[in-house]
């Protein structure tokens, strides 16, 4: 096992599409583990699949990491660019007798497997070149295969899964270097993790079988193995493997939903890991608490209602400036126009009355429409219905009454209550027309909060505009 005196973790996504939420959760676990121990968190782009790896997909990974706020140490490493080093290790293993040249063609391998199927025996390929005399090697293309142990077992001591045993007669002599000289994924991962000093391989449990094969390379090279920690996958709300049908699969989908990054970190941390009964916490707590012993073995399950609850908790506690930065990023992600300086300032002023019960950034923007709107307002259907002739007459009277009153909540409340009573109404009956006049909506923050945020001049202008509307 690795020496944990200098903790080094990594995330190594393949740039072949979106950044999957499972990759984001794995990245978070690695980040928390390293940051809580003064260690390093590294990023490696596993871009060896040249047909599918694209610069756009690489940028999508970087965007996802940046949005989540998971900073990595040093430069991102390209696995493809390290191919000469991978080949060097394969040839070193060949020289040390831990690997061999295999000249079998694909047709020969398939014929072997077909014969095995016919005879109802294992189709695991056993190369005839494993113990061949080098003098018999032909002048032909070859791959380099690992000389894996045939007897006994390969045991992985996993920090999450416990002791996992793989029978060696179920593991083949895997190819490490192809006939064109390019390395396979299995070899590249081990060489990169070793060279980068990775002490803890924290990754999805779909890699658990890979660990047995990769451990054989570590042991053949006399390299220290990392601490293995294979975490359960994420399932959809229906308990099935996560797909677009049962939950958003890309991390940036959640950015576009308007979930603040801090809330997403909190939610992802609890998706498969626990610290007692703590559900809601900030980064500093997660960094201090996170440990591999808190990771469960059962698949985690997405729960959008819980995510919304976590998001609401964070929104209520975030600093206004931080929330505004999140809103600006959300608008950019979704292709919406940025806020003007005046809109930005009004949103900041309104934030105290927007945060309550908001579950997402779109909720904040919806509640804050009164601060973002410009005259002439375009009332929605319910708001238009509230602006009947009687209500418009009261609003006209109010425009004059509010000219010179003190602009405080108490004075405004008293003035509006008296205006309602003068017409034999309770204030609640007047609130609807006021919401329609001030925001063009029927659901808004309190009338008094809106008036205080937009100020006397704008309030009077909106009341006068609503009062003069045609039926």
From TrEMBL:
Domain Aminoacyl-tRNA synthetase class I anticodon-binding: residue ranges: 325-466
Keywords per UniProt: Aminoacyl-tRNA synthetase, ATP-binding, Cytoplasm, Ligase, Nucleotide-binding, Protein biosynthesis
Matches recorded under SUPFAM superfamilies: An anticodon-binding domain of class I aminoacyl-tRNA synthetases, Nucleotidylyl transferase
Catalytic reaction(s) noted: tRNA(Glu) + L-glutamate + ATP = L-glutamyl-tRNA(Glu) + AMP + diphosphate
Originating organism: Roseicyclus mahoneyensis
Gene designation: gltX
Main function: Catalyzes the attachment of glutamate to tRNA(Glu) in a two-step reaction: glutamate is first activated by ATP to form Glu-AMP and then transferred to the acceptor end of tRNA(Glu).
Name of this chain's protein: Glutamate--tRNA ligase
Motif ('KMSKS' region): 241-245
EC number of the protein: 6.1.1.17
Assembly and binders: Monomer.
Keyword check for Nucleotide-binding: yes
Localization terms from the record: Cytoplasm
Keyword Cytoplasm listed: yes
Cellular component aspect of the GO annotation: cytosol
Primary localization: cytoplasm
HAMAP family named in the record: Glu_tRNA_synth_type1 (MF_00022)
InterPro entries (UniProt xref): aa-tRNA-synth_I_cd-bd, aa-tRNA-synth_I_codon-bd_sub2, aa-tRNA-synth_I_CS, aa_tRNA-synth_I_cd-bd_sf, Glu-tRNA-ligase_bac/mito, Glu/Gln-tRNA-synth, Glu/Gln-tRNA-synth_Ib_cat-dom, GluQ/Sye
GO molecular function: ATP binding; glutamate-tRNA ligase activity; tRNA binding; zinc ion binding
Binding-site residues for ATP, renumbered to this chain: 244
Motif ('HIGH' region): 13-23
Family in the record: Belongs to the class-I aminoacyl-tRNA synthetase family. Glutamate--tRNA ligase type 1 subfamily.
GO process terms (BP): glutamyl-tRNA aminoacylation
All copies of domain Glutamyl/glutaminyl-tRNA synthetase class Ib catalytic, residue ranges: 6-308
């Amino acid at each position: 096992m690795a020496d944990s005196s200098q903790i080094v973790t990594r995330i190594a996504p393949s740039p072949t599409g979106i950044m999957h939420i499972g990759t984001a959760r794995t990245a978070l676990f690695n980040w928390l583990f390293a940051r809580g121990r003064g260690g390093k968190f590294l990023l490696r782009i596993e871009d060896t699949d040249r047909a599918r790896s694209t610069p756009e997909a690489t940028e999508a990974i970087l965007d996802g990491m940046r949005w989540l706020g998971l900073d990595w140490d040093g430069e991102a490493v390209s696995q493809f660019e390290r191919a000469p080093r991978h080949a060097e290790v394969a040839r070193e293993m060949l020289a040390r007798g831990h690997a061999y040249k295999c000249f079998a063609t694909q047709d020969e391998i398939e014929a072997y497997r077909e014969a095995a199927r016919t005879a109802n025996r294992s189709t695991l390929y056993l190369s005839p070149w494993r113990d061949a005399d080098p003098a018999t090697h032909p002048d032909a293309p070859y791959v380099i295969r690992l000389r894996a142990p045939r007897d006994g077992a390969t045991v992985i001591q996993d920090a999450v899964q416990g002791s996992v045993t793989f029978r060696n007669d179920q593991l083949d002599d895997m190819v490490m270097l192809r006939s064109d000289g390019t390395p396979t994924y299995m070899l590249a991962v081990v060489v990169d993790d070793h060279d980068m000093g990775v002490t803890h391989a924290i990754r999805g449990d779909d890699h658990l079988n890979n660990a047995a094969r990769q451990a054989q390379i570590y042991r053949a090279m006399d390299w220290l193995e990392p601490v293995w920690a294979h975490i359960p996958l994420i399932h959809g709300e229906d308990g099935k493997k996560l797909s677009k049908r049962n939950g958003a699969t890309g991390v940036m989908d959640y950015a576009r939903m308007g979930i603040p990054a801090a809330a997403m970190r909190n939610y992802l941390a609890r998706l498969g890991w626990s610290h007692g009964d703590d559900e809601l916490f900030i980064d500093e707590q997660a960094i201090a608490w996170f440990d591999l012993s808190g990771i469960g073995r059962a698949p985690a399950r997405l729960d959008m209602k819980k995510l919304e609850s976590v998001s609401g908790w964070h929104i209520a506690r975030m600093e206004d400036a931080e929330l505004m930065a999140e809103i600006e990023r959300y608008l950019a992600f979704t292709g919406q126009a940025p806020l003007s300086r005046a809109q930005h300032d009004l949103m900041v002023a309104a934030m105290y009355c927007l945060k309550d019960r908001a579950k997402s950034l779109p909720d904040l923007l919806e509640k804050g429409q009164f601060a973002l709107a410009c005259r002439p307002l375009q009332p929605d259907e319910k708001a238009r219905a509230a602006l009947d002739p009687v209500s418009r007459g009261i609003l006209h009277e109010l425009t004059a009454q509010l000219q010179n009153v003190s602009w405080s909540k108490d004075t405004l409340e008293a003035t509006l209550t008296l205006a309602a009573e003068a017409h034999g109404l309770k204030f609640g009956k007047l609130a609807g027309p006021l919401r329609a006049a001030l925001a063009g909506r029927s659901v808004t923050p309190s009338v008094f909060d809106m008036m205080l945020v937009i100020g006397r001049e704008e309030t009077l202008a909106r009341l006068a505009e609503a009062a003069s509307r045609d039926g």
